[in-house]
Give the backbone structure.
Amino acid sequence: MAEINLNKDILPVPGVKWSATYAGIKKNSITKDANSLDLALMEVSPGSNVASVFTKNIFSAAPVKVAQEKIDKFNYPCDCPIYLLINSGNANAGTGDEGIRDTHKCCQSLSDATNSNIDYVVPFSTGVIGEKLPVENIITSMPSLVDGLSSKNWEKASRAIMTTDTVSKAFSRSINIDDKKITITGICKGAGMIRPNMATMLSYVATDAEIDQSLLQELLNQAVNQSFNRITVDGDTSTNDACILVATGESKIKLSKSHPSFSFFYENLFELFSCLATSIIKDAEGATKFITISVEGGLDSEECLLVAYAVAESPLVKTAFFASDPNWGRILAAIGRSGVQGIDINSIEIILGGVPVFQNGKVSSLYNEEQVKNSMNSDDILLTINLKRGSTKEKIWTSDLSIDYIKINSDYRS
Amino acid sequence: MAEINLNKDILPVPGVKWSATYAGIKKNSITKDANSLDLALMEVSPGSNVASVFTKNIFSAAPVKVAQEKIDKFNYPCDCPIYLLINSGNANAGTGDEGIRDTHKCCQSLSDATNSNIDYVVPFSTGVIGEKLPVENIITSMPSLVDGLSSKNWEKASRAIMTTDTVSKAFSRSINIDDKKITITGICKGAGMIRPNMATMLSYVATDAEIDQSLLQELLNQAVNQSFNRITVDGDTSTNDACILVATGESKIKLSKSHPSFSFFYENLFELFSCLATSIIKDAEGATKFITISVEGGLDSEECLLVAYAVAESPLVKTAFFASDPNWGRILAAIGRSGVQGIDINSIEIILGGVPVFQNGKVSSLYNEEQVKNSMNSDDILLTINLKRGSTKEKIWTSDLSIDYIKINSDYRS
């Protein structure tokens, strides 16, 4: 698998501090990191705005319920510090009322330790579903966690939120607007149970630009929709997905839609979201290939995405990619059962690694099995499907299905 | 995997003959049978009625298109013999106009060899998608194929239609109605690319009862809907699925809805369909477990099936079954993303191998991990999900996702 092109210098964002520690929640080390971290804390300075999206899985976890409820009641800009408490190793999902009480207990402990308003202490969890949150471990770790807060800890935090991830995921952008430097930095985690639905796996992004909350939420929705909502590993939407975008305003650069550099800022923000989202696919459980599926010539977004996901989530297509086998018949069969009606088999075009494989209702005259096989041996593959009946185009990212995926997911809890 | 409980004595059906041969279509032996067969012929005597269902994959294969067109024009009862020509090893799908021409050529050759009406010569194919049908091989084999017709060849035919199947699938029932013996015998194939959609993998069932065509079609639709349309291996609907039910009438027992033994006949017919459908799951590619998912307490069939298939096709649930890991959190997450709105997490009940694992919004007080793990070690597992908001119940069958599934599907074409 291609090494993730991490931005080596993860830039601090004025107004944001992180801390991370090992609280003993990950009983068995499920990461490759010998010094497993499993508890992270983000401190956001007063005066910030926060935008958020959460999983649409109707069985959302206790921390998701509590976090949504609290964030809904925030006054903007917040006049007190905000604390985000994130544990890995335990999802606190499927844990009933006890799970809700447990998450409140952790928030209370953090509120006490920081002497802060509990309404602005927000919980997040990721890990195994259905096991009781080890509240005592978290409470015991609270003093050292708070002590460790530093603006330099983004990378450390990105390691603390990992579960089956094999690499940590953190990216930074620094741009100049009005002759001042603005920073955008973000982290995320995720490798399996990945098909975010109007939400993401856990991801935290911050900028020191000053952005009104309603606009910030709009930017987040738009960026998430084209990044985290365009990836799938296994079609499984987690109970714990969440994505948070913070604008601390510490740069004193106020960005509104009328600002001449607004688009420039959004482009950079979106690029960062794309880096985060695709880093999840590049680290997908057992993955050996990073696959971009571009569906073009559709009547609307919906049908492009139906086709794209039918192909991306077909176990037969995924294993063919694993084997570098140009078995395009499986792609054709998946398009045909995608639920989109009226696609004409004689019009569509399938292009694999730049080589047309299917045109005019049959194998393309330009098809060369060896050439396609070679391009499929690459660890970064573009599959283009042209429906040739409209002008809409959608792109999603996915991974192959390997023997290691089965091994990882047969072993995860043991 | 549990050995498939084959009915050792596959009974001939008066009015039906089969023949099978090796035509060199399966270039590499993809079955475990050293004496690969790849071409089968079914002869149905004049006076019979035929019912059929075909794949709803909109990119249906050339033989599916031709077969549907021909069968739609049959006059009932047919006044001439019907010939069904079935090859394995090549699906003749994604082959454009040439594929249509090729399938007609094979029919013409069979019509010539049998001196029969070509309108009643019907083609079927199963195997690799997108490769040209080796017409010459088929035509060359025609004389010996026709010569071999015998009422005793059901089992041989069931071997000739196999692709990645590891066992052949044939079942018989003999029942007495009006003091006469009526036989129902059927064969099918299928192990991967299995999620029949209002149709099936290839299956051929015949009885010597006399049944009007419209009623026969009604019986077929009903039986298929509760058998082949309730199984999934990988969520992939094939381009070539087809199921044929023949009533030769040779027993001279006329069955209509008013016949006192009609329900008795249907029960036996349905039981045979269930045996055929579940035999596909028991032979699912790489499968080590046969899993029955029963969703109860739903408002309607649709929501029960949405939940059942979301769980059955979740790669995470499937790998947990492979590992005998009672990771019910994955089941919960799949229900939560199934698309069914308004399910109350506090009402639902998950019962695994007879042990309640999730109740009242959290892990059940009766849950015993060791006990559930033991029951998951069985190769035949019942998972019950009670939505507790209605009285509808649906049952589907599926398999686990194993390392061998990946191996088989990475190797299939090579």
About this structure: Residues 1-7, 30-34 of chain A have pLDDT under 50 and may be disordered. Chain A touches chain B through 67 residues (CB under 8 Å).
